[in-house]
Write a structure and sequence with these properties.
Layout: H1 3-12, H2 30-35, H3 61-65, E1 72-78, H4 83-92, H5 99-108, E2 121-124, H6 129-135, H7 139-151, E3 161-163, H8 174-180, E4 185-187, E5 197-204, H9 208-219, E6 225-232
Parallel strand pairs: 1-6, 2-5, 5-6
Antiparallel strand pairs: 3-4
Helix pairs in contact: 5-7
């Protein structure tokens, strides 16, 4: 690593990633850190399985008719500015300076059911080999690594699940997403029998990826599946 890179990184972590003012330890200044909670999800009025609007936080009619293959889903924030820009910089520009504030946001609005879920292992939603080579890393691995230090998680190796290469989910509408992700995952590693697994993802829209991965894990002997994502995107028609 060059001297310039070291110096740039030294000053970078002391600047707020949003306004470039003096940052706190999580990469945000006091003002920007205080502003982000307005993006926290309204869990009290969201379906606990798909996070669509549901008065009183009850399971919505769609999920009652066709329950997803996971027990609970949680999104810490809505995928709106400035969070959407932060995630884009982290995910597509490999701006690791965004990692501390994104992880901090997840910690600040974490799933209330997490302590009682009996989580035995945690898995970052995998990327296909092509997508990993394209980006150089899996953003979900980074989220899990940072959160795992706080929670003491047993993290499953990334080669546990193989993901076939498909068109990016973000480019598709809801019906296309479900078809596109079908049979995308193949379990390669050992899944402890009846182990409750927590899936970590960055952004979800329809939940199709999480549902398909949950189904694959259950077929391989996993117990209950829980999902925690950084953000909830608005649904495309």
């Amino acid at each position: 690593m060059s001297f310039f890179s070291i110096i740039s990184g030294f000053f970078r972590i002391r600047q707020c990633v949003l306004c470039h003012g003096r940052a706190l330890s999580d990469g945000l200044c006091e003002g920007c850190a205080a502003d982000l909670p307005h993006l926290f999800t309204d869990s009290a009025n969201s379906c606990p399985l798909c996070f669509s609007a549901s008065i009183g936080g009850t399971v919505c009619g769609r999920c009652q008719q066709k329950p997803p293959p996971f027990e609970q889903l949680w999104a810490s924030a809505y995928y709106e500015p400035p969070l959407s820009g932060m995630v884009y910089a982290f995910k597509h520009r490999a701006d690791l300076g965004m990692l501390p504030p994104l992880v901090s946001l997840m910690r600040r609005h974490s799933p209330p059911w997490l302590p009682d879920a009996g989580i035995g292992a945690v898995l970052a939603v995998p990327l296909s080999k092509n997508r990993r080579l394209e980006r150089g890393f899996n953003q979900c691995d980074e989220l899990v690594r940072e959160l795992g230090r706080d929670y003491g998680w047993n993290v499953l190796p990334r080669h546990t699940v193989f993901r076939r290469h498909h068109a990016p989910q973000s480019t598709l509408k809801s019906a296309q997403r479900r078809k596109n992700i079908r049979h995308a995952f193949e379990i390669k590693g050992t899944i402890p029998k009846d182990c409750n697994i927590l899936l970590i993802d960055d952004v979800f829209t329809t939940g199709a990826t999480l549902a398909e991965l949950a189904r694959s894990l259950k077929k391989s002997g996993a117990g209950r599946i829980y999902c925690w994502t950084l953000a909830r995107s608005r649904l495309k028609n």
